[in-house]
Amino acid sequence: MVRTRFCEVFGVDYPIVQGGMQWVGRAELVAAVANAGGLGFITALTQPSPEDLVAEIARCRDMTDKPFGVNLTILPSINPPPYAEYRDAIIESGVPVVETAGFNPAEHLPAFAEGGVKVLHKCTSVRHAVKAQELGVDGISIDGFECAGHPGEDDVPGLVLVPAAAERINIPLIASGGFGDARGLVAALALGADGINMGTRFVATVEAPVHDNVKRRLVEATERDTELIFRQLRNTARVARNTVSTKVVSRLAAGGTFEDVRDLVAGTRGRKVLEVGDLELGIWTAGQVQGIIHDIPTVAELIDRIVTGARELINDRLAAAVR
Ligand SMILES: Cc1cc2nc3c(=O)[nH]c(=O)nc-3n(C[C@H](O)[C@H](O)[C@H](O)COP(=O)(O)O)c2cc1C
After folding, report:
1. How far, CA to CA in Å, does 226 sit from each of 241, 293, 314?
2. Which Pfam families did the record assign (predicted)?
3. Domains of the chain by range and CATH?
4. CB contact set of 174 (below 8 Å; sequence gap of 6+)
5. I want to staple 122 with a disulfide (CB 3.0 to 4.6 A). Which of 86, 101, 158, 235 is the partner?
6. How far is the CA of 163 from the centre of ligand 1 (A)?
7. Which atom of ligand 1 is nearest to the CA of 20?
8. Which stretches of 192-227 are DSSP H helices?
């Protein structure tokens, strides 16, 4: 058993979180994580409307009696999705926890508090973590430079970011980015976190609703096979390296603007990669942790392996080192 205060506050058996993932965070995966004792998040914006989100939450409830949450990724955009409507759908569905990410969640916190929804806010810097703590969120998930998706612009890896955050955060703290196995969980606990969040590792599981080619590529790829796009636009994203990501990087490095890459980075192309398994169709998200992913287990196997392995690591290897 590995339990921390995170488990008490968020009502789960193990301090292992499956973060929101566009096109991946659907009921099948989230229910599997919940049934295995972790905290999974349905990704709100994967659903085309708030009504579809309500239906997806109901579908997940049909597959598990355990608690699970919803990720609300708030990205500033010219035509933003109806965030407040998604938020209200989350509250009205009686979901006990939300993972906010992408932007300051202040605008949504009073409604979540009134609806009794706990907030785990995910961010990429200590200053944003401190700000969210001041705003009254219930937990912080801090994403290091290794992570899949948006690592921010500070380029601070988890080995420094997590303990730096732990020095300033007194609510449950989840370490995110680069975690995939028992070694990572033990390291996160040692660094001062109360658990781990994983994205990429959960994509390479039996239940993840993505094409097998994607899962197999995560097993084959090394830690060097990701690429940072959008650096010049100050909207950095870590993605799987392929011909499309390389083209995006070179066009922007040559002075191109977003218009020059708009077609390459279209969300519809990235979604297709996950659905049909053609890995060169578009941009798809993956983290450096792929270098230590060597198989495609069920979610239950993965979580059991992490929890059992962490206990063994602490009791055997670490205990032997201080004997
Ligand atoms: C395919 C994929 C899609 C993602 N989409 C989102 C998203 O929509 N919102 C979000 O907050 N994080 C998203 N993430 C980030 C994860 O929730 C998590 O923070 C990150 O994957 C942690 O790093 P790791 O991949 O090294 O475990 C995504 C990650 C992956 C792999």
Report:
1. 5, 14, 31
2. NMO (PF03060)
3. 5-207+298-321 (3.20.20.70), 212-288 (no CATH)
4. 6, 15, 17, 120, 139, 140, 141, 142, 193, 194, 195, 196, 197
5. 101
6. 21
7. 17
8. 200-203, 212-220
